[in-house]
């Protein structure tokens, strides 16, 4: 899991990618061109995950069609056939294994496996050591005292691949939805910019790890974004013991697969009045404590909560803080009504999200 110490080690790597992000925004501002926030978020997270997971410089802004990005895009935008295949492997894993149904295209699997093999061999030789996810896996592999702690190479490759996929789409889509809502709600955008500037001033005008942790309204925006737009809109779990639903005659038998609609829960007016309204104040400390913890589960909950949650949050908050500190974003006049892509397991907008940029003194 990502402890505070490990997060701090990776923080500067993410900030380095953030510097490239800021340079790209400045270029667009000088050229007076709108920013496609969806594409910008994807390029930023490609650089971050490529660096933090694999220790590689993807240089996505200079090369937006790099192999990391193209393989990831292929997985997430595979159309209806890909969607059916993904649901089938989740619902009937045993049958799909027998039938040879693949979750990932063969060339994508080979690409990531080769990358992990090359990076791992370099790390195990001792010639290179970095504070990233692959280094964590290498150290676990070396230091494992029993079968539970020991990784095979295939397991290492799978872990790194899942880290990339989970971190890529969730963080980039969250940033996209957040900026779309802030462009529509300028009061929210102005308030968070004031916070980012005030907090960073305490740290010499810099965005540090400690500064990010202090930006509470930024965190409320992040939480409200994932409340309204849960990237993983359903959770699948297996009942571990017989359970009778309170007030009903229904008993969930041990071994039953349960599909939980996060989108439904997080849009339930019983918990979130006027659920289509974007309101970060739903997530003030007092309002959070007034609701059951399971009314908000964008990363899951309990022992099977997403292990990359803290890293994903940090990555998105850094990107948002850098983009908001000195720039203001408004909806471009050519921006159509946003629609959601309905041929993916994950929630994402279709098409571009163009925003106009203004410099803020």
Task: Write the SSE topology.
Blueprint (H helix, E strand, L loop, with lengths): L3 H27 L4 E2 H18 L12 H10 L2 H13 L1 H7 L6 H19 L8 H11 L9 H32 L1 H16 L7 H6 L1 H13 L5 E5 L4 E2 L6 E2 L4 E5 H5 L18 H5 L19 H17 L1 E5 L22 E6 L2
Antiparallel strand pairs: 1-7, 2-5, 3-4, 6-7
Helix pairs in contact: 1-2, 1-14, 2-8, 4-5, 6-8, 7-8, 8-11, 8-14, 9-11
List keywords for this structure.
361 residues; Cytochrome p450; three-stranded antiparallel beta sheet
Describe what this molecule looks like in 3D.
With 361 residues, this protein is mainly alpha-helical. Helices cover 55% and strands 7% of the residues. The chain has a single domain (4-208, 311-359), classed as Cytochrome p450, CATH 1.10.630.10. The protein has a three-stranded antiparallel sheet with strand order 1-7-6. The longest helix is centred in the middle third of the chain and has 32 residues, at 153-184. The model has no long low-confidence stretch (mean pLDDT 84).
